[in-house]
# Entry
Amino acid sequence: MEQKIGRQSLQFENAPSILSSASVVGKKEGEGPLGDLFDMVCGSDKFGEDSWEQSESTMQKEAVALALGKAKVTQEEVRYVFAGDLLGQTIATSFGLMSYEIPLFGLYGACSTCGEALSLGAMCVAAGFAKHVLAVTSSHFASAEKQFRFPVEYANQRPLSSTWTVTGSGAFLLGSGKSNVQISGITTGVITDYGIRDSMNMGAAMAPAAAKLIVQNFKDFNREPKDYDLIVTGDLGYVGQEILWKLVKDEGYDISNNHADCGIEIFDKEEQGTQSGGSGCGCSATTLSAYFLPKISSGELKRVLFVPTGAMLSQVSFNEGQNVPGTAHGVVLEYNAG
# Structure
């Protein structure tokens, strides 16, 4: 079977399974619409640590422990970890997962890192290089604000287009064993630049990359929107969702009837003051783990295209006046009854 299909996709002959997953979130996320679904909600966003960055590392450590515990798999049985976060040199990941002593591939795909980690982990398992791998990512509102925008103490006013970085970590154990959820294929995105320079409008920056990825997935797999029960983007929010629908419709596809966005699902924007919605590496990871995966595992959803999105900027590029390009990674998740 030819596993490479189309321009940017793979269809796995031996589809790897998601054996377990876990979600760890902060106080605000726990107060949102999905609060009862997360595995761990901490009453303080410090998670008992001295800094925001250390607390983000703790979230990753706890998420991995929970995912391994659910599957009854030890850390010694895991061959590789594919993980990343939003911080410089991915320090939340390095310090958080160091004690596990599992070979680590550190990743940076901004808010699309969950999709990147799942894609690379699935490739590794499908190729027979590992029986078990972990895909892990995280973000923290305060550490992200401090690095990319303003310290929280600055109390700057947030525009309606802005998204609220999710404090959370998601961990996924992938393997060659049987489960009700399989990764049947992936579509890898390209960097897409539509000239957006507003770092407080991530939805507009990332929507073009998501649109291009989704359309390419349709072409590569010879599918239409109706072939998916749901197309789930990661971090576009209300502003980005409208742009996405228009861009995809311009290419001849209408996804408005079966599209959902993790950034919209995780918060109540009216009650919680989160403007356009949620974003951050932890947004798509925790929402997928807590909300969408159980629906696939039960058979309520048979096939889902999961498309986390990322804005590829840094302090340096922003201060130098560069645009904010976006990227996206698509993961095809399917229900497996047997």
